[in-house]
From TrEMBL:
Native source species: Musa acuminata subsp. malaccensis (Wild banana)
Family annotation (PROSITE patterns): TFIIS_CENTRAL (PS51321), TFIIS_N (PS51319), ZF_TFIIS_1 (PS00466), ZF_TFIIS_2 (PS51133)
Domain TFIIS central residues, every copy: 207-337
Keywords from the named record: DNA-binding, Metal-binding, Nucleus, Transcription, Transcription regulation, Zinc, Zinc-finger
The name this protein goes by in its record: Transcription elongation factor
Any GO MF annotation of the entry: zinc ion binding
InterPro entries named in the record: TF_IIS-typ, TFIIS/CRSP70_N_sub, TFIIS/LEDGF_dom_sf, TFIIS_cen_dom, TFIIS_cen_dom_sf, TFIIS_N, TFSII, Znf_TFIIS
Described purpose of this protein according to its UniProt entry: Necessary for efficient RNA polymerase II transcription elongation past template-encoded arresting sites.
CDD domains: TFIIS_I (cd00183), Zn-ribbon_TFIIS (cd13749)
Amino acid sequence: MDKEMLETFEAAKKAADVAAEAGGGSPEVDRCLDALKRLRSLPVTTQDLVETQVGKRLRYLTKNHHSKIQVEASALLEFWKNVVIQETSNSKKNGGSENKNLVKNIKSERPEGVKVDKTSRAGPVTMDVISTSESSKFVKKDRERGMNAEISKSERDKTEKNGSNESGVHSVNAVRITKGDPQAAATKKSSAGPPRLTTMIKCNDPMRDKVRELLAEAFSKVSSETNEDERDEVRNISDEVDACDPIRVAVMVESVMFEKLGRSNGSQKLKYRSIMFNLKDGNNTDLRRRVLLGEVKPEKLIIMTPEEMASDKRKLSNEQIKEKALFECERGGPPKATTDQFKCGRCGQRKTTYYQMQTRSADEPMTTFVTCVNCNNHWKFC
């Protein structure tokens, strides 16, 4: 099933790309629509969508230039969302009915030698021994294991599944602790990470608060920029970006800047300006995204040069400028010579000029730079 889903989706994506390049009423539009309809007819589950990640990649087709492809892709995405919601609600209903049956079995199997007293609605259950010494030993062991330990989600599931095979006293303790122990609930919340901040954390310093607000505003744009990016590898991490807290990251970055660089109007004012300019630059989405995701730590950010903080597009442009400048540099070199020994790969003519320059170490051969007189094509070789 997973292989069929992936093959059908790849066919739809390929057809959509060809249709976008061709424009107009291309037959590739019909091929893409047929593939999307086949995807909708396939029986899928939440596990299939998670393993194949087709749902994330389908967002690309919802922004296609053809309105028919947009409508069909949006409808398919909405259909898959309803499938996930339906499965989630069914699993919750089944889980609730199993828990009710478990509690009924526990009450019916409760032994006569133990009396259960509720100390509070949110607290654990305490046991008062009435009869035998064996019951006393069992209650002590149960208190040490159940009442003083934090029960994780997986352990609670195992306890509920095996509750019918164990004694009634142990089952009662497990159920009560999972429902009423505030410490276990706090542990579950903390495992999911810190909560998102809704308001800025102030430090009673107007200048520092202003820097934090500017950083939070810049990081808040990353989510929409990631969804609108043209690169597939960037759009595929949109869920990771949405899970990040821009306000918390802004506070961390500003705190490290203040600790390492001092105040923004001090001796490191130019460094502050360089960092803030690159983080707020509308064309430098890559740096903002990497800082928000934690790929670039605040400690590394404050020591990066402007060239290192530049976007991927700017870095590529700078490299091309350097290569072109090196290629056209003729300082201290001999004059150009005309020859017919080199054939131009663009126009096929042999009318060329060349010169040589030592671009590497002294024991390495010189680099020859060749220019075609006919089409002005440049190339080099060693």
